[in-house]
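pinging the channel bc i need a second pair of eyes. not urgent but kinda urgent?? the chain im working w is below, pasted from the shared doc
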Amino acid sequence: MKKYRATKKDIKIIEVKNGFLKIDPMRYLSGYEKFLKVYQDEIDKAEKIEAAGGEPDFEGACKKIMDAFDKLFGYKACEKTFGKGVTPSWDNFTEFFEKLEKLSEKWWG
């Protein structure tokens, strides 16, 4: 079985708030599951803490999600996408991926 490699025409560039992100379908597909796990784990932790009457560390959770986002899309991708010095909310990440999902369906079927 041949290993698939993305060609230049498969790789897409999207404009974000402070620059551009390169979307390589192979890197995106393989890395998205890892990102999603970090995202869901942080949400689950926060919900458990809230249910026990505690105060979750939302900023710390979002920073972990930001690191996972940068691993998925490249160096300073979060800063380019959401702004320098900005800690995006969970809703910001959700909105980004909903938009990206529509684009990826259009690009790659």
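so The chain is about 60% helix and 10% strand. and The CA atoms of residues 79 and 86 lie 7 Å apart. — does that match what u expected or am i reading it wrong
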